[in-house]
Each structure stands twice: as C-alpha cells, then as structure tokens.
Write a structure and sequence with these properties.
Dehydroquinate synthase-like, alpha domain, six-stranded parallel β-sheet, Rossmann fold, three-stranded antiparallel β-sheet, alpha/beta, globular, binds zinc ion, binds nicotinamide-adenine-dinucleotide
Amino acid sequence: MSDEKLFVGAGVRLKARAWTRGLSRGKNVALVSEPGVWRRYGPGVEKALKGAGLRVARHLLPTGEAAKSWDAVDELLCVMLESGLGRDSALVALGGGAVTDAAGFAASIYLRGIPWVSVPTTLLGQLDSGLGGKTGINLAGGKNLAGAFHRPAAVVCDTEVLKTLPPRERVSGLGEALKYGLVFDAALWDMMTRRWDALAAGEARPTDEVVRRGASWKRRIVALDPLEMKGPRELLNFGHTLGHALESVAGLGVLRHGEAVIWGMRAALRLSVKNAGLSAAAALEADRFLASVPVPTPRRLDPKRLLAAARRDKKNRGGAVRFVLLREIGKAVVVCVPEGEILAAARELFL
Ligand SMILES: NC(=O)c1ccc[n+]([C@@H]2O[C@H](COP(=O)([O-])OP(=O)(O)OC[C@H]3O[C@@H](n4cnc5c(N)ncnc54)[C@H](O)[C@@H]3O)[C@@H](O)[C@H]2O)c1
Ligand SMILES: [Zn+2]
C-alpha cells in the first residue's frame, strides 16, 4: 500500500487535474456524495473532473450513517456497473466520514478493488476519517464492523468548504485536532489554545494550518503502521477509550465524536498524572482549557456503565484497561490503568 498524496488548501477541490493525475487509465470516474454536500459542492467538483478530461458517473448516497449500509453500497456498486465503469476506472468520494467510509469501501470491493480519491468535507474528515484507508459500513450489531483497508490514492482537503460547517461539527473536528497536539505536537497545542476563538469562528488561516498539521500527523502515523498491527497507530486513540464508551453510554447521536473525545481527553489527563508522570500543573492547565470548550455535558451518566463500556474496548487486558496517556504535552505512552482509577476519574467529571 503506497502513501496517499495529500492536497491541502482553499479551493483545492477544484484543481482536479492535479489530484486525478494517473488515477484512471480509462478516464472514467464515479463521483459519490450525499444530498447535503452535493447541493453546495457537487456541481463544481463534477465540472472540475470533466475539465480534467474524465467521464463522470454521479451517485448520491443517503445522508449520515444510512450511507454506511449494505443496501446503500449495493446500490452504488450497481450504478457503477450500469455506467460501464471497468477496472481501469476510479472513484471520487466527496463528503464527510460517512460518505468516504462507504464509498471507499465500495471502491475496495468493486471488481476486486479500484483506486479512489477521498475529498473530505468535514473537519473531522480532513483530520481523521478521510485519511488512512480504513473504510467500511455498520452492521446491525454495531458500527464499523465490516470493511477493508483501502488507502486512497490522494486525499484532497479543501479548507474552503469548512466555512459552511455547522458550529458543533467544527468544534467536534477541532477536538480531534487538539488530540494531535497533545499526543505529538506541543507547538500545535499551543497555537490552537492561543487562536481558539479564531478557529471556532472558522477563520481561514489558522484552520488551514490546523488541517495541514493534523492531516500530516495522521498520514505519517498511518505510514508507520498501515494495517494497525504495530504500536504507533494506537497512540491516535488518546481520549478515545473513554470517548467511545461515552458515545455509546450517552446514546448514539447525543454527543458528536470529537465532543466525546474532548471528555475522554479530560479523563486521560487526570489518569496521566499518576500513571504516566505528567506534571499536575500541566494537566490542570490543559484540563482548564478543554473545560472551556463548549461541549454538551451528558446527563444522568453512571460512571460504572462507562467503565463497563471501556472494558469492552478491544484494547482491554486483564484487570486493567489499556490507555494512551501523556508523559508531557506532545509525548504519549500506552499504560494499563487499574479500573478503580478510571472510575474515580469518571466520577470526578460526571457526578
Ligand atoms: N475511517 C476512519 O478512519 C474513521 C475515523 C473516524 C470516524 N469515522 C466515521 O466517520 C463518520 C462521521 O463522519 P463526519 O463527522 O464527517 O459526519 P458525516 O459524514 O455524517 O457528516 C455530518 C453532516 O455534515 C454535513 N456536511 C458535510 N460536509 C459539510 C460542509 N462542508 N458544510 C456543511 N455541511 C456539511 C453532512 O451533510 C452531514 O449532515 C462516522 O461514521 C465514523 O464512524 C471513520
Ligand atoms: Zn477520533
């Protein structure tokens, strides 16, 4: 699996000639999106693809998680076949994580796999879900349970499209970017805390820098560990052990993913002081900042249920739960944390 090419900047979605170079020998692409994104950005990207000399077969998936179903993928594959797309064709996915997950999965199985380009349109997508090659759909038994590793040939992060994101989606994406700062990049964390108001307002320059740096971190880590077999990719789970648990205990859809990760990072900061040597002062300062970010507080949350959900997490070993914690801001380690301490941190935050 070769590394994806990364294009970041305002307006890059329209420079299709650059990001489709060498993509499809047959000069045929499926352009896959969903109605919300299509209305705003679809026609422009379609025109750019045609301008780059490609024939375009367009298909819209349903909005949100409904895209990540067998039925939706089946329909897409049938449209691709009816449009005469052969093995020398390619797919372009334009949308949030739901679209890139489902369409990337379709690309991984269509005629045993064709190349694809991911054009993520949410901040979460540009920092996380649109990169790295994890594609898939949901099953009745849970989220993301069927899928494939299929890395895109290119990832096109157009920061201009982020201007139309609803504020909660923006904060959720920024939560994921704060994670890259805390785990790998103290300078990014500093910059984000200083420029938070501008970032939350969607100002172009700092947003551009955050996407550039966050996406590069994700790409670099994935290159070290493309199939999630070795250590480095695990560090991307900072804030996610309790974050995922919180998402499911609060009820799906109550918290956006990045909002749950912000709560998860607040718990992980507490656990880092005793279990990973983070200084209490650094933990307090970082926690104060995270506490100032406007995210909803989940109601009537039972810390024991949270612990049970974290225990189910695949990273769990024996009587302790594997956690990514911080030694200092910008340096992460993986540690097994006793359950009593997790419970104490959850009580402090949610009771
Ligand atoms: N593959 C991975 O590595 C990975 C990682 C994290 C998350 N995910 C998956 O990503 C999905 C969530 O993705 P998401 O948060 O991007 O949500 P999403 O794809 O459901 O999109 C959220 C909403 O934002 C709207 N939208 C998208 N772009 C917009 C824009 N530029 N302006 C205005 N509105 C816009 C969409 O119409 C939709 O209503 C989940 O299914 C999750 O499992 C995958
Ligand atoms: Zn995440």
